[in-house]
Amino acid sequence: MSGQILEPGQIEAAANIPPFLHLPEPDLFSRRARRLHSLAVDHPLAAYLLLMAKLCEAQQRVLDAPPTLPGPSAEALARSFEHRMPPLAFDTLVRGDAWQPALDALLAEIKADGNPSVRAAVAGLREADSGRRKAWAIALLGGQFDLLPAALVPFLGAALQVAFSHWLLALPSERLVETSSQTLCPACGSPPVAGMLRHRGKYAGLRYLSCSLCACEWHHVRVKCSHCESSKHLAYLSLEREGVAPERSVIRAETCPSCQSYLKQCYLEFDDQADAVADDLASLDLDMRLSEEGHLRRAPNLLLAPGSSD
C-alpha cells in the first residue's frame, strides 16, 4: 500500500478544513411543506404559503416516484469533473428535454381545488408545446421574469427543482468540488436563495449557501458578500417580530454596501426547522423594507415571481 504520509501540522490543517457540501435529504420537499404549514399559522400570506405547501407535497410525490429523467451522460459528467465545472450546468440541461417529464408528472399531481388561478396556470403549462416550455424555463432560470407569465412561475420552478434535485441526489457527492465561482452552486451553477447558518456537529458555526434550483448547499465563509465577495462594512438586518429579540431572529439579511445587494440568512440555532425556500417566502416583508432602503435582491426563489404575492 502506498500513499502520502502527513506530518502532524498537515493532519491538523486537514482536520480543520470545513466540509464543502451539505446535501439535501431525499425528503427535502416534505420537510419544506411541513415548514410552510408551520409558518402559515397566523401569517398574513397564509393562503399563499399553504398553496406552496401543497405544491411541495406534490414535488415530493414526484421525487419519490420519478418519471424517466435522463441526466448527463457518463462522458459529460467525466468532463465536468475533470475541468471542475458544475456537472448539472442548468444553462445546458434546461435547453434539452430531459426535465420536461418532471413537469408533466408534477402537473398530474396538482389539484386545483376550485382555485381558478391554479387551474389556469396548470392548463397553460400542460397545453404549451416543448419549445414554449423550454423558452419559459430558460427565461425563469435566467432571471428574466418578464418573459413568462407570473402565474406559471411557481409550477414551472417546482418542476425544475424536482428534476435537478433528482439528478443531484444521483451524483457521487465526493466528486463535487469547488468551482471557479464560490458564489454559484458547484452542482448546477445556479445562484443561492439564502444562506444557512448551521449549528450542529461538524457543520457548527459554518455558513452554507442554499441553491435555488437543486437544493445543494456549499460552504461560503461568513461575513463575506455572497454576490461580490466583499467583506467591507457588511450589515445584518432583521424585522422585529412579536416576542422575538432581533438578535435571536431566525431570518436576517446580510447587506453589502459594495454592490448594494443582500442575501437572507437562516440561523438554525434559533429554529432548526428553518428552510431556505420556505422561510424566504414567509419573510417578504423584510424584502419590502430592504427595497425601500435601496438594497437589491439578487437571490431567486423559483416558487415566487417578483410582485406575484400581492
From TrEMBL:
Biological role: Necessary for formate dehydrogenase activity.
Pfam families assigned to the protein according to its UniProt record, in alphabetical order: FdhE_C, FdhE_central, FdhE_N
Domain FdhE central, residue spans: 184-222
Main location: cytoplasm
Domain of life according to the entry: Bacteria
FdhE N-terminal domain sequence ranges: 18-178
Protein family according to the UniProt entry: Belongs to the FdhE family.
Protein name: Protein FdhE homolog
Coiled coil: none
InterPro entries tied to this protein: FdhE-like_sf, FdhE_C, FdhE_central, FdhE_N, Formate_DH_accessory
Keyword Cytoplasm: yes
Domain FdhE C-terminal: 223-304
CDD domains attached to this UniProt entry: FdhE
Subcellular location: Cytoplasm
Keywords: Cytoplasm
SUPFAM superfamilies: FdhE-like
A GO-annotated cellular component: cytoplasm
Keyword Ribosomal protein annotated: no
